[in-house]
C-alpha cells in the first residue's frame, strides 16, 4: 500500500512530466520547487523527490546556479530513437498483418479520417494522439510480447527526448494520412509480410526525413 508521501511524490511526478511532454515546460525551463509545492498543495519534499525521478528519466537536468531545468532537446537521441522505432514497428506490423480483422481495418480507417479532421482544424496534439492510436492498432496483435514491450519502451524514450512537442509540418501530416491509406490497403489485401514490413518502416522513416529537412 502506498503511503501519502509516495502518492504525493507520484502525483508531482505525473504533473511535471506531463507538462514537459506537452511542452508547457520547454527545454531550459527552470523548475521552482517551492512554487510547485504551493501549486500542488504539498511540501517541497515530494516535489524534490519527483524531480530526482525525472532526472533519472532524462527529463530534468541540474545546472549550476539554475538548479533543476528541463533537459535541452537532444536531436541525436531523437534521430536514433525514431530510427529504431521504425524497425520495431515495421516488424510488428508485418507479424500482426496475419491476424488483421475487418473490425480492425474499419477502426484504422476511422482513425485516419479523424486525423484528417484534426489536421483541417490545425489541432496538432489531437492529430498526434490519433496517429499513435493508429500505429498501435497496426501492430498490437503481432503475437510477440517482447517486441511489443520494446516498442512501448522505445516510445517512452521518444517522449523523453523530443520534448518540444515536435510536430510534423502540415505537408508531411497530409502525406502521412495518404501513406496510412496505402497501409490499410496493403493490410486489407493481405499483402506479403515483407512488403508490409518495408512499407511500415519506410513510413516512419519518412517522418524522420521530414524532420531532418525541416531542421537543415
TrEMBL record:
<feature type="domain" description="HTH gntR-type">
    <location>
        <begin position="6"/>
        <end position="73"/>
    </location>
</feature>
<dbReference type="InterPro" id="IPR036388">
    <property type="entry name" value="WH-like_DNA-bd_sf"/>
</dbReference>
<dbReference type="Pfam" id="PF00392">
    <property type="entry name" value="GntR"/>
</dbReference>
<keyword id="KW-0238">DNA-binding</keyword>
<protein>
    <submittedName>
        <fullName>GntR family transcriptional regulator</fullName>
    </submittedName>
</protein>
<dbReference type="Pfam" id="PF07729">
    <property type="entry name" value="FCD"/>
</dbReference>
<dbReference type="InterPro" id="IPR036390">
    <property type="entry name" value="WH_DNA-bd_sf"/>
</dbReference>
<keyword id="KW-0805">Transcription regulation</keyword>
<keyword id="KW-0804">Transcription</keyword>
<dbReference type="InterPro" id="IPR000524">
    <property type="entry name" value="Tscrpt_reg_HTH_GntR"/>
</dbReference>
<dbReference type="InterPro" id="IPR008920">
    <property type="entry name" value="TF_FadR/GntR_C"/>
</dbReference>
<dbReference type="InterPro" id="IPR011711">
    <property type="entry name" value="GntR_C"/>
</dbReference>
Amino acid at each position: 500500500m502506498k503511503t501519502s508521501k509516495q502518492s504525493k511524490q507520484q502525483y508531482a511526478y505525473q504533473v511535471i512530466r506531463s507538462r514537459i511532454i506537452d511542452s508547457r515546460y520547454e527545454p531550459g525551463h527552470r523548475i521552482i520547487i517551492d512554487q510547485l509545492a504551493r501549486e500542488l498543495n504539498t511540501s517541497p519534499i515530494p516535489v524534490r523527490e519527483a524531480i530526482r525521478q525525472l532526472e533519472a528519466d532524462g527529463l530534468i537536468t541540474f545546472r549550476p546556479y539554475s538548479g533543476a531545468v528541463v533537459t535541452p532537446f537532444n536531436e541525436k537521441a531523437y534521430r536514433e530513437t525514431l530510427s529504431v522505432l521504425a524497425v520495431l514497428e515495421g516488424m510488428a506490423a508485418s507479424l500482426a498483418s496475419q491476424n488483421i480483422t475487418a473490425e480492425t481495418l474499419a477502426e484504422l480507417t476511422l482513425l485516419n479520417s479523424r486525423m484528417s479532421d484534426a489536421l483541417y482544424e490545425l489541432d496538432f496534439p489531437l492529430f498526434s494522439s490519433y496517429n499513435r492510436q493508429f500505429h498501435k492498432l497496426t501492430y498490437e496483435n503481432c503475437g510477440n510480447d517482447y517486441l511489443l514491450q520494446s516498442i512501448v519502451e522505445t516510445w517512452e524514450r521518444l517522449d523523453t527526448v523530443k520534448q518540444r512537442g515536435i510536430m510534423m509540418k502540415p505537408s508531411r501530416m497530409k502525406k502521412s494520412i495518404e501513406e496510412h491509406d496505402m497501409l490499410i490497403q496493403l493490410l486489407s489485401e493481405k499483402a506479403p509480410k515483407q512488403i508490409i514490413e518495408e512499407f511500415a518502416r519506410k513510413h516512419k522513416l519518412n517522418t524522420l526525413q521530414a524532420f531532418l529537412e525541416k531542421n537543415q
